[in-house]
From TrEMBL:
Its cofactor is Zn(2+). It comes from the Bacteria. This is Queuine tRNA-ribosyltransferase. Zn(2+) binds at residues 309, 311, 314, 340. Pathway: tRNA modification; tRNA-queuosine biosynthesis. Belongs to the queuine tRNA-ribosyltransferase family. The lineage of its organism: Bacteria, Bacillati, Bacillota, Clostridia, Lachnospirales. The gene is tgt.
Length: 378
């Protein structure tokens, strides 16, 4: 159940009640594709850096170790020792990114594993079955994520198929949740809005999936090559047609600036690999922009990544030491940068929630962006 606590313009401050605990929104979901955050970050670490939701990927876990293995181990929560909410991506984006390895049909998609080349079939029912075996808190519907530059005719046909697939996902999830051996019989389903950069197709699709009365609604197929301005235009067009009393999830987004702009347009849920990927390459986020700790100017810098930050890296180590670890290819350097970046994102979401509650979101956003403007990729 989604509880809308406060609105500040279109920005929403909510509380999403799940079988694995309450999610305070807006929220950034920390991405652990294969049931682990890249960068040697444990679930105990996640608890210490204010993570609310962990996100894992259906396709990757189906390929390795196998969703049946995870089910035999008691489901993802037990498998990875995480007692808070988990969202599983349906695998649609990964399947469709394997453009040279798959064939799309009405029944689903035939493709080859990127690991060992074996043939795999995944359709709406298979995706729901895999996610039920994983026993995540929130399952994503199986959809096609077409190229943002696909022509109008292809996009319309693709979105129509995604709608048909969504109906099949819901039917299969209802069946699975009724079975006695299902680990999480209260698994939730989010549908995904598609349509590229065609506003009319997006809006019509939003109306169609809203009628299905799902647990939440995602906006997919953005941040895949279009400009930030185009993404914001689509959000402004689509979000008003999604139910305000349900969570809205912008998939695969984004930078701190993307999140700040998304919240202002009514988005509740975000996820992105940026904080972990950038951290593994020595790029760290601060309120004064992004730093590249490989830069020589940090060699003798005995200050933390950011003064006042309470993350594990900043509490104990200097920029100079972390730079040394990165240069020496010591895993600890990568790990500390990832921890800092996730802490930065999770803390920013806390600030966002407080600003909305205070009715001061617009001024908070502008001040935050102004502070970070000297950093690239914000």
């Amino acid at each position: 159940m989604y509880e809308l606590i406060k609105r500040d313009g279109l920005a929403k401050r909510g509380r999403f009640h799940t079988v694995h605990g309450v999610i305070e929104t807006p929220v950034f979901m920390n991405v652990g594709t294969a049931a682990a955050i890249k960068g040697a970050v444990s679930t105990d670490d996640l608890r210490g850096i204010k993570t609310q939701v962990e996100l894992s990927n259906t396709y990757h876990l189906h390929v390795r170790p196998g969703d049946e293995v995870v089910k035999k181990m008691g489901g993802l929560h037990k498998f990875m020792n995480w007692d808070k909410p988990i969202l599983t991506d349906s695998g649609g984006f990964q399947v469709f990114s394997l453009s040279d390895l798959r064939k799309i049909r009405e029944e689903g998609v035939h493709f080859h594993s990127h690991v060992d080349g074996r043939k795999i079939f995944m359709g709406p029912e298979e995706s729901m079955q895999i996610q039920s075996n994983l026993a995540s808190t929130i399952a994503m519907a199986f959809d096609e994520c077409p190229s943002s530059i696909a022509d109008r005719e292809y996009m319309r046909d693709s979105v129509a198929r995604t709608t048909r697939w969504l109906a099949r996902c819901r039917t299969e999830m209802d069946r699975l949740n009724s079975l006695p051996d299902t680990i999480n019989q209260k698994q939730m389903l989010f549908g995904i809005n598609q349509g590229g950069i065609y506003e009319d197709i997006r809006v019509e699709h939003a109306k169609q999936i809203t009628e299905m009365e799902l647990d939440g609604y995602a906006i997919g197929g953005l941040a895949v090559g279009e400009s930030h301005e185009e993404m914001y235009r689509i959000l402004e067009a689509v979000v008003p047609y999604l139910p305000v009393e349900k969570p809205t999830y912008l998939m695969g987004v984004g930078t701190p600036a993307n999140i700040l702009e998304g919240v202002e347009r009514g988005v509740d849920f975000f996820d992105c690999v940026y904080p972990t990927r950038n951290g593994r390459h020595g790029h760290v986020y601060t309120n004064h922009g992004k730093l590249n700790l490989f830069n020589a100017k940090f060699e003798l810098d005995d200050s933390p990544i950011e003064e006042g930050c309470q993350c594990p890296a900043c509490r104990s180590y200097s920029r100079g030491y972390i730079r040394h670890l990165l240069k020496a290819k010591e895993m600890l350097g990568m790990r500390l940068c990832v921890l800092h970046n996730l802490y930065f994102y999770n803390t920013m979401m806390e600030e966002i929630r407080a600003a909305i509650e205070a009715g001061e979101y617009k001024s908070y956003k502008e001040k935050k962006l102004e502070g970070m403007k000297n950093g690239k990729d914000i």
